[in-house]
Each structure stands twice: as structure tokens, then as C-alpha cells.
Amino acid sequence: MAPLSALLPLLSLLTTPSLAQVYTSGDTSGCGLSHLFPGITQPRAIQSSGTTRTYSIHTPSTYSPSTLYPLIIGYHGSSSIGLFLEADTNLDSPQYTASKIMVYPNGIGGAWAGANYSSTTVDEDLQFTWDMLADIRSNFCVDSARIYATGLSNGGGFVGTLACNDSVGGEFAAFAPVAGAFYTDATGPQDGCKPARSVTPVMEFHGGADADVFYEGGPGEGGILPAIPDWLSWWAERNGCDSDYAQEDSFDGDVHHLIWTCGGQGGVVQHYKTDDEKHDWPSTTLDFSAIAAGDGPTHIDASAIIQEFFMNFTRPA
Hints:
- It is a single chain.
- The protein contains eight helices and twelve strands.
- The two termini are 33 Å apart.
- Strands 1-2-4-3-5-6-7-12-11-10 form a ten-stranded mixed β-sheet, sandwiched between helices. Strands 8-9 form a two-stranded antiparallel ribbon.
- The protein is of the alpha/beta class.
């Protein structure tokens, strides 16, 4: 690890979006269609793999049928539904997504594929994500160069599964799992993970006191989990990152921000660890997952940090 002072020139790249040619071939057939009650979350249902699957969508209150909007998909944790993630993260708030579309899919049996308790296979949930994206783009005006995925716990693990998929995962520009349970990516950098692109932006948040998805890895509720430092090193290797990374400690050493530079681009892989945080969504105000974990507010606001991270990356052509 390099000291932060030695890598400050690299950190300046964190606020500079990629200059690569941007993807422009996405489906825009949903543009021009008007919708009632913009700014109010609405349920939708589709058929996928012979099963009815559901999700909710929240458009900006100022939604315009002629404007291409970034799209963020949020995957809930186990024993939950999309509505809980929506309420927990407050991602619908204009301070985070005033000019973005938010989507909250529902896993079957309250979970996503990858764990031994999951009701679906990885292929089924990947297909659902593909079919959901097709439904969204044919009904709403979406900027296909700016589609992103985040999620909590089991949902964060599925975000990792998406990032490792070279077909459905290629629809996304960046990924930001929180307290991720990475059951499908637990054995090393060459464990079947096949990202769609040689550079795949990933940001992960984790609590050092997480008693559900241990920071040090090991047996989890749904199978074996990787140690988070190992998982990060695998993504650094997959992305061809520099061997040294920058680390910035704050809040009296309780929060650690790790930043890798990959292919000359700063911040492609990032990580926030809060030492005393448990298994919840990092928020400076008390949220539902913190209450469930017996935790309190944290020093950082993941919902805000994720927005800045996502907006630095677009899907390349």
C-alpha cells in the first residue's frame, strides 16, 4: 500500500469521468411515452423464465419523455423485498437521484440467486435482470450508457454476480455492492468470474463489525464467503490495477477508503470499511437495516457516495 500523499496526483482522476467513446446503441423505444404520477414509485410485472416477476420503478418528479435518464437498479437483501431497500437507502430522494430512474426488483422467496437458501438459479435471476431491462427500456427513456447496479447483503452478492457475467453484466457501467455476500465469487480471481469488459468499475462498502457477512470471510448463512480484502484484490487483478493502492483514513481512524488505479484511470476499484459498523447500509441518519442490526448511524452516507462513483463511469462503445 502506498501512502496517500504519494498518490494524490492519482486521486485527482477520481472526479474525471472516463473519456472513452460512449455506448450509443441502446434501446430508446420507451422515449416519447408519458407516464402518470412521476415521482411516485409504481409496481410492474413481467414474465421471465415462465414465471411472473415483479419490480418497482421510481421516475423523477420532473420526468420528461424526451430526456435520456441514467438508471440505477437496487437489489434487496435476503428475507426482504425491493420496498425495504427503497425505504432503507432513501435512494429516491432528490438529493441523490433527482435526475435518475430508480428500480427495485423483487427476488423470489425474498432472496437472490447464489446462496444455498436461494429459490432461483443464477441463470434465472440473470434472465430476470435482462428481461426487466428490456421492459424498462421499452417503456421509459433510458440512457443505456448509464445503467448501474447496487444492492445490500444477498442483493450485494448478486450485484457481484452481475459484475462477473459477460452478457447481462455488460449492460451495466459500474457496480456498488454494500455488505456483499459474495457466494458466487469466493475462491479466487479465476473462479469463473468473466466480466464483460477488461475494466469493470466496482465500489464495495463493508462494516468491520459485520456479524452476518464477516469481513474476514468464512462460513456464511448461504455458503462460504471470501474475505473482503481478498475479494478486492481479485477485482484489482481482473481490472489490471496498479499493485499499490491509496488509503485515506478518517473519523479518528474508524473509516478507511481504499482506491485503486487501473489502466491509468483512478478509482476504478474502491472500498469503504467502517470498523465499528455492523451489517447495514452506511448512513449518517438511522436507517432500517441499522435498526435491524442493532447499529446506529455511521460516519458516511453510501447513497451519496455511490452517486458520485456511478456518474464517473459510462458504458464504453
